[in-house]
Amino acid sequence: MLHVLNHPLITHKLAIMRSVTTGTKDFRDNLEEIAGLMAYEISRDIPVKPVTVETPMGLCNTFEMAKEIVLVPILRAGLGMVAGILNLMPTAKVGHVGLYRNEETLQPVEYYAKFPSNSPGSVVMVLDPMLATGGSASAAISSLKNRGCTMIKLVCLVGVPEGVARIEADHPDVDIYLAALDEKLNEIGYIVPGLGDAGDRIFGTK
Question: How far is CA 174 from CA 24, 113, 134, in A?
Fold first, then answer.
């Protein structure tokens, strides 16, 4: 299921990131802040369990999260979203998955994957600022499923209908969370209007 988080704070910060005049620091800072704001919404349906805690005034019957959280950024741009979510969920574990595109087959190839041992029983958030063709995200999700993960959420800033359709076809059980659903992909696979190459803008490599 697709969730587009049309929140004024998210939209405002995303507008700053979209601007061609925004430098590396402000781009990175706003990305972290948006990731944290999105995490608040994404965690709304995380299972909880009843607990009793002692307050200064007595006992309180309340709830705590029943599942651990694992963050899995897709290298390299997904790294820019980790800190913002960890600020909200500091006990979350972090895995990593690296993918490159085979120039002959145009299919994603996994070159690195390392996940926390608790991943199969956790709520796993796959992080990537851009959902373009959906190939990398689909491959990352498949890698997690092959390792026993069943509760997976895909978290991206900007996506397009092509990428959404790919994930819905390959992984209909995975919820997709976007800060914005943009118009289309251009002829070289960039999101329009998008925000450019997220990795280059996060790390200042262009």
Answer: 31, 20, 13
Instruction: Please tell me what DSSP assigns to residue 95.
Output: -
Query: Going by C-beta distance under 8 Å and a sequence separation of 6 or more, which residues neighbour residue 32?
Result: 80, 81, 83, 84, 87
CB atoms within 10 A of CB 16: 17
Name the residue range of residue 13's domain: 2-203
How far is it between the farthest Cα atoms of the chain?
Answer: 67
- Are the CB atoms for 22 and 16 separated by under 8 Å? yes
Give how far Cα 102 sits from Cα of 128, 162, 196, Å: 19, 20, 22
* Beta carbons of 179 and 40 less than 8 angstroms apart: no
Average pLDDT, the chain: 94
Q: State both tokens at 25.
A: 């620091």
Residue 105 pLDDT exceeds 80: no
Indicate which CATH number applies to the domain containing 148: 3.40.50.2020
Q: Quick check: pTM over 0.70?
A: yes
Q: Quick check: 106 pLDDT over 70?
A: no
Domain tally, the chain: 1
